[in-house]
């Protein structure tokens, strides 16, 4: 019997105009749907807080030692489920929920400017779009230089690239929580399929 894969999936708490954060709603829906019996799924709600993310992510990687960590965030401008290819180190000037931002404006002093995921997001995107599940998926190279990007870079560094970031639109813009959960499930399954091949 093959070993179960461990996957950690995170969403974010509410912030700003997002009184309900669709990322956490989508992650809870994914938890309900599951990823099949060969995957041990662990979900976690992250605070919109730079310092907390710096503490929490290393402990999640250490505790679960996942084959893949997938972080989900809401994007007010997204109308599709958006796969981010890389996380960025610099230019963090937006304040978090505690009105804080890093004095250095970066994730890691002297870290590389960006870190790419080992997962080819273009391939994941094409496969999910071909499967006609009623959710449109796209790919982006810019996760937005806020907590989403910050989380992604930190996780990519912790997990040597075995991390992914997915931006989802706000609820109803255009997808329901069930549709977002289904889209997330399809995306994560394809990511795991790609890792199988490597």
UniProtKB/TrEMBL annotation:
Gene Ontology terms, cellular component aspect? cytosol
**Can you state which reaction this protein catalyses?**
Release of an N-terminal pyroglutamyl group from a polypeptide, the second amino acid generally not being Pro
> Its Enzyme Commission number?
3.4.19.3
Q: Which GO terms describe its molecular function?
A: pyroglutamyl-peptidase activity
Q: Which InterPro entries match?
A: Peptidase_C15, Peptidase_C15-like, Peptidase_C15-like_sf, PGPEP1_Cys_AS
Q: Which UniProt keywords apply?
A: Cytoplasm, Hydrolase, Protease, Thiol protease
Tell me the active site.
148
Class of the enzyme per the UniProt entry, highest EC level: hydrolase
Q: Tell me the domain of life.
A: Eukaryota
Q: Does the keyword Hydrolase apply?
A: yes
User: Looking at the keywords, is Plastid present?
Assistant: no
GO BP: proteolysis
Question: To which protein family does this belong?
Answer: Belongs to the peptidase C15 family.
Protein name, per record:
Pyroglutamyl-peptidase I
């Amino acid at each position: 019997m093959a070993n179960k894969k461990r996957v950690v999936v995170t969403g974010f708490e509410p912030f700003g105009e997002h009184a309900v954060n669709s990322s956490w709603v989508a992650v809870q829906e994914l938890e309900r749907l599951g990823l099949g019996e060969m995957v041990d799924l662990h979900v976690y709600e992250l605070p919109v807080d730079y310092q907390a993310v710096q503490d929490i992510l290393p402990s999640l990687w250490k505790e679960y030692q996942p084959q893949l960590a997938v972080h989900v965030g809401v994007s007010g401008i997204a109308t599709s489920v958006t796969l981010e290819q890389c996380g960025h180190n610099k230019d963090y000037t937006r304040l978090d929920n505690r009105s804080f931002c890093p004095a250095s404006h970066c994730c890691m002093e002297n870290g590389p400017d960006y870190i790419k995921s080992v997962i080819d997001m273009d391939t994941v995107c094409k496969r999910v779009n071909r499967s006609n599940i009623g959710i449109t998926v796209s790919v982006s190279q810019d996760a937005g230089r806020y907590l989403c990007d910050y989380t992604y870079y930190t996780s990519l560094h912790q997990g040597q690239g075995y991390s992914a970031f997915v931006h989802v639109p706000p609820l109803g813009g255009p997808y329901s929580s069930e549709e977002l959960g289904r889209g997330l499930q399809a995306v994560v399954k394809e990511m795991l399929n790609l890792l199988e091949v490597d």
